[in-house]
Each structure stands twice: as C-alpha cells, then as structure tokens.
Specification:
Blueprint: H1 2-9, E1 13-14, E2 20-21, H2 25-132
Antiparallel strand pairs: 1-2
GO cellular component, one term: ciliary basal body
Keywords: Cell projection, Coiled coil
GO biological process, one term: cilium assembly
Length: 133
C-alpha cells in the first residue's frame, strides 16, 4: 500500500491486470468510455449526413418534377389560349358570312317582290288585253 502511494505520488498506477500505467485506472476507464462515445457520435453524425444527403436529393427530384409539371401546365395554358383565339377568329369569319348571306337574302327578297309586282302588272295587262277582244 505504501509502495502504491509512492507510485501514485509519482503519477504511476497499476491497472486491474497489474500493469503499470501513467493514468489512474478510473481516468483511463473514463477516457476509454469517452473514446467510445466519440466514435458513436461520429458514426451517428455520418449517418445523419447520409440521411440529409438523401433528403436533399429527394427534394431536388421533387423540385425538378414540380418544374416539369409547371412547364406542362404553361404549355397546356398556351395551347388553350391559341385554341380560344382560333375559335374567336372562326366565329368572326362565320359572323361575317352570316351578315353577307343576310344581305344576299334581302337582295333576293327585294328582287322577288319586284318580280311579283311585274308578274301582277303583266297579268293585269293580259286580262285587259283579253277583255278588249
């Protein structure tokens, strides 16, 4: 015990296997435990980095997919706009055609009325001519 105290004063200690050590057994055990905890911490940190990396990758993929869908939506909207413009142009053409046909119909109606009047006049003339004989 006295020898141990003298060695302890000199900073030397015996471990559980009676090997001479510079560190106290308790300090050596704490150091080993700390080393293990550090190793576990480093492992967990690496695992966390891996998880974060795959999460970032997933977010990037989702962003790309969202961008693609956005482009599709813009394309579809532009297509609808152009279809709407085409329809509008067709409608205007048809309105112009209807107006033209209505004018033509009016001309034919006037022409028909004129021809009916001429026919009536001619019939009257024929009747007068027959009665004169």
């Amino acid at each position: 015990a006295m020898a141990q105290a003298a060695l302890g004063a000199a900073g030397l200690h015996f471990d559980e296997l009676n090997k001479l050590r510079v560190l106290e057994p308790e300090v050596a055990a704490q150091t080993a435990q700390l080393r293990e905890e550090c190793r576990a911490f480093v492992d967990k940190t690496a695992e966390f980095q891996k998880i974060v990396g795959s999460l970032i990758e997933l977010v990037d993929q989702l962003a790309k997919a969202a961008e693609n869908e956005k482009m599709k939506a813009i394309g579809a909207r532009n297509l609808l706009k152009s279809i709407a413009k085409q329809r509008e142009a067709q409608e205007q053409q048809l309105q112009a055609l209807i107006a033209e046909k209505n004018m033509q119909l009016e001309r034919y109606r006037i022409e028909y009325e004129t021809l009916c009047k001429i026919e009536a006049d001619q019939n009257e003339f024929i009747d007068q001519f027959i009665f004169q004989k």
